[in-house]
Design brief:
Layout (H helix, E strand, L loop, with lengths): L6 E5 L5 E2 L15 E5 L7 H5 L35 H7 L8 E6 L5 H14 L4 E5 L4 H10 L8 E4 L3 H11 L3 E5 L16 H18 L2 E7 L11 H5 L2 E7 L5 E9 L7 E7 L2 E4 L3 H6 L9 E8 L2 E13 L7 E4 L3 H15 L6 E7 L11 H13 L7 E4 L1 E2 L5 E2 L4 H10 L4 E5 L13 E5 L2 H8 L2
Parallel strand pairs: 4-8, 4-9, 5-6, 5-7, 7-8, 15-16, 17-20, 20-21
Antiparallel strand pairs: 1-2, 1-3, 9-10, 10-11, 11-12, 13-14, 14-16, 18-19
Bound molecules: thymidine-5'-diphosphate and magnesium ion.
The site of thymidine-5'-diphosphate has 14 residues, from α3 and α4.
Length: 465
């Protein structure tokens, strides 16, 4: 590493500047918050000057400019680039926006490198040049992965490099349409002294890649590893820098993966894309309900189906509950894919309002397929599954439960009932249970019967006479 400018350490909490690294910030007393950055405003050093055009904010010379009228700004209707990997394009809001920066986060081994390589290959085949930069793997390793994929990838440009200055210079000389960087934690700038992956390096490298994207119109896709705490790369700041943040999730043992947008400057958030990891890379799953319902046995007790809205798309999921006699000590409450406090609340409501006592029972709730139920609209299905397990009797076959459960044991209305019911009908369900306050204005399907109820007590009284 040569040509270092002056660097300082700034507290990521209070912003105080320190000349040297310390474990604790003198100003606010927080531990482990100091991150290295390039001293502002003036910047020296060879590396910095050579790349000043794409450098950090302080590196550019300032003089007055003419601010354009908003109406004179062009390019708003510039087409997006479709990778052809449908679920990926969908989550982005309809393809890659030129000049944007997208962060793809996920745990190690989930398939981030595979996803990016497939996107690179697809883009290249669709006529948009792609430069894939691997800081983690040798060209041979990348080649081995590429050879497993269905899409031909011979024309993708490949660079094994970790020095940011080299990456930017190469990208600037080649001017591909898309640059893919795997991963942000492995690259570093010689302007900072810290090791790759530390907060200062990650932030500075991301900021310069973003600058590059905006200056050149090249789209930059970056992989970020998720830390134990669940955030990308430790610094939350990284999520503020980029345009779009996608999380790639899944259960290690299952082969399907969910891509979720948590921030999107060019589209909506909370959309999901579903993939399956196959022997030859990721395959888009166009019918997620079928996947999440999987091989469900609707004659078993403790199983109910909910219709959730994942972004704009309704998805049916199976909710399983098991209430079993507790051994000794405090009974257990274990929820997978469902909020533990919400479960405690539902158990209390079932106890008080529907006469089901769980005091001596261990309770397990599981959302099949590794999906997470965040919407309150999933409450009724959880309650129904719990009641079904307690009575040890199956719920009516081919039925879906939609509703939020209130503290009074009342079943409350949900949003967009029509769309959820339409999906249930499409998947071959014949009965929908929901609140009498959310009767859909129109029932899109003749083949589905809608049963409304006011309270949990009424519902279970009818289901388990
Ligand atoms: P990888 O993309 O390396 O994950 P990440 O970059 O997120 O760490 O891939 C992870 C797993 O996917 C790996 O265990 C092997 C598996 N895999 C397949 O099952 N099929 C394939 O075609 C490929 C390329 C990988
Ligand atoms: Mg990887």
């Amino acid at each position: 590493m040569t040509g270092k400018g002056k660097t300082v350490y700034r507290c990521t909490d209070c912003g105080a500047e320190h000349p040297k690294w310390a474990g604790r910030c003198d100003a606010c007393g927080e531990w482990n918050t100091l991150a290295e950055e390039i001293a502002a405003p003036k910047q020296s050093g060879l590396g910095a000057r050579r790349h000043s055009r794409t450098g950090a904010a302080g590196a550019r010379e300032s003089s007055a400019v003419v601010a354009p009228r908003l109406g004179d700004v062009t390019g708003a209707d510039e087409p997006r680039w479709m990778s052809g990997l449908d679920e990926f394009d969908f989550v982005l809001g309809g393809g890659i926006v030129p000049g944007s920066m997208v962060l793809v986060g996920g745990e190690p081994g989930i398939g981030k490198s595979t996803l990016l390589l497939q996107v690179a290959a697809r883009m290249q085949n669709a006529g948009h040049s792609a430069l894939y930069i691997s800081g983690e793997e040798s060209p041979l390793q990348v080649k081995l992965r590429a050879s497993r994929l269905k899409e031909p990838s011979n024309d993708v440009a490949l660079l094994s490099e970790t020095l940011l200055e080299t990456i930017l210079a190469t990208a600037d000389a080649m001017r591909p349409d898309v640059v893919l960087v795997d991963s942000i934690q492995t690259i570093y700038t010689s302007d900072l002294e810290g090791a790759p992956g530390n907060v200062g390096q990650v932030r500075e490298c991301a900021a310069r890649l973003m600058r590059f994207a905006k200056d050149t119109g090249v789209a930059v896709l970056v992989v970020g590893h998720v830390t134990k705490g669940g955030g990308i790369a430790g610094p939350k700041t990284l999520e503020h820098i980029v345009d779009t943040v996608l999380y790639f999730e899944g259960e290690g043992t299952l082969d399907h993966r969910v891509l979720r947008a948590t921030k999107n400057r060019f589209g909506s958030v909370d959309e999901i894309g579903v993939f399956r990891m196959t022997q030859s890379g990721l395959a888009a799953v166009s019918n997620p309900s079928a996947l999440f319902l999987g091989d469900r046995d609707d004659t078993a007790s403790g199983s109910a189906v909910a219709a959730l809205l994942e972004g704009t798309r309704p998805v049916l999921v199976e909710i399983q509950a098991l209430a079993a006699k507790a051994g000794f000590g405090t009974p257990q409450r274990v929820a997978t894919g469902f909020d533990g406090r919400r479960l405690a609340l539902l158990l209390a409501v079932l106890d008080k309002r529907a006469g089901l006592s769980f005091g001596a029972l261990d309770v397990f709730v599981n959302v099949a397929g590794g999906l997470r139920v965040i919407e309150p609209a999933g409450d009724l299905a959880v309650a129904a599954a719990l009641a079904s397990s307690t009575y040890d009797r199956a719920l009516p076959p081919r039925s879906v439960f939609l509703g939020e459960v209130g503290l009074g044991g009342e079943i409350r209305a949900i949003s967009q009932a029509e769309r959820r019911i339409a999906e249930a009908a499409r998947m071959g369900f014949t009965t929908v249970f929901l609140s009498d306050r959310s009767i859909p204005r129109r029932n899109g399907s003749r083949n589905i019967e809608i049963t409304t109820t006011r309270t949990l007590d009424d519902l279970f009284g009818a289901l388990f006479p």
